[in-house]
Amino acid sequence: MHFEPGDTGRLVLKDADAVLAEYVYEPSEPQLESPRPYLQLRTRDGRDVTAYRPDDHVWHKGLSLALPVVGKHNFWGGPTYVHGEGYVQLANNGAQVHTSFEASDTPIAESVGGIARFDELLDWITEQGETLLRETRTVTARPVADDGWALTWRSALRNESTDAVAFGSPTTKGRENAGYAGIFWRGPAEFTGGAIIGPDGEVGDTARGEPGPWLAFVAPDESAGVLVLDASETDSPWFARSEEYAGLNPAPFFFEETSLAPGDTLVLAAAFVIGGADVARLAATLGTSLVAELRAQPRPADEGERAEAEVPSDTDLDSDTDSTGADR
Fold first, then answer.
1. Is the pTM of this model over 0.85?
2. Contact criterion met (CB below 8 Å) for 192 and 222
3. Are 138 and 119 in contact (CB under 8 A)?
4. Nearest partner of 208 among 176, 168, 185, 161, judged by Cα
5. Distance (Å, rounded) from C-alpha 136 to C-alpha 242?
6. How far is CA 12 from the centre of its chain?
7. What is the spatial distance between Cα 209 and Cα 239, in angstroms, rounded to a whole number?
8. Distance between alpha carbon 193 and the CA centroid of its chain, in Å?
């Protein structure tokens, strides 16, 4: 399993000849959609398990890091929730801009473990052209038995501005039960109405706003399932939807804002397993291992030095090593 360059602005994750994912790191969407890199995911037998620009919310892009409240800026896409006014289209849609890829610092261990990986630097640019955050992003992928595969995502966000930046959600701004923000998985249209499963069994949309270590989403025809695990230090609340569309994300800013001082770093991380209808059975074993791996990564005090380091060119990867009333 390895990442290799694809079409312009894309990486392709391959397992032998099978394409399991595409990472679009130079998106072409309009500013209103808060352009950002995203992953499109497939099962090992070729079924799509992510959506791209669905009709209900065109700013939803596969698997991506999307934040609707970053100070006064919107890095989710579309209109911004304003208390007392509803969703209003403001001149505040920022973009995540790819700057470079880094060479892995553990290539031998990854080769032995069959792990594919990329490390990326990104700038978070406001609609007014100012650099608000600088991100170091690490994504890994690995096979799981014969019918599944796993992915981890870790983002370290450093405040590049001269002021503290508050991370929140529409709920922290006054909208009930709309705490979406974070590493967000949007499923395809045919997943709508599927089962949402938690540690205590099927929970459905009632999982929204509740804390927990993981949730799994199973397609209505039980042809595929996606397990999502929160790698925060404590269990975050979840944004979870099935009735209107398929979507899951650990949402650390669901109810409360987090303030990031100038020069400080905030880490967001999650793990995913793409498999069959029984994917939830892997939460206690593989899932626990993936979360432990993410939590063991260097903490924020180390991030600044890494972000400052000189990085190689993208060619280093060429190796095997809606309506205003709806939730957004």
1. yes
2. no
3. yes
4. 176
5. 31
6. 17
7. 6
8. 22
Half-sphere exposure in the Cβ direction for 139 (13 Å, CA): 25
Q: What distance in Å separates the CA atoms of residue 169 and residue 253, rounded to the nearest whole number?
A: 6
Q: Which two tokens stand for residue 12?
A: 């392709």
Are 286 and 294 a contacting pair, CB within 8 Å?
no
Give the SS3 label for residue 284: helix
Q: Is 263 left (phi over 0), alpha (psi -120 to 50) or beta?
A: left
User: How does pLDDT run across 20-37, given as a tens digit for each residue?
Assistant: 999 999 999 999 999 999
Name the burial class of residue 91, with classes exposed (0-12), middle (13-18) and buried (19+) by CB atoms within 10 angstroms of its CB.
exposed
Q: Are 160 and 134 in contact (CB under 8 A)?
A: yes
Classified as helix, coil or strand, 93 is: strand
Tokens of 153: 């995502």
pLDDT tens digit string along 241-300? Answer: 999 999 999 999 999 999 999 999 999 999 999 999 999 999 999 999 999 999 998 765
Beta bridge partners of 13: 3, 21
Pick the CATH number of 2-309 from 1.10.3470, 2.70.98, 1.20.1250, 2.60.40: 2.70.98
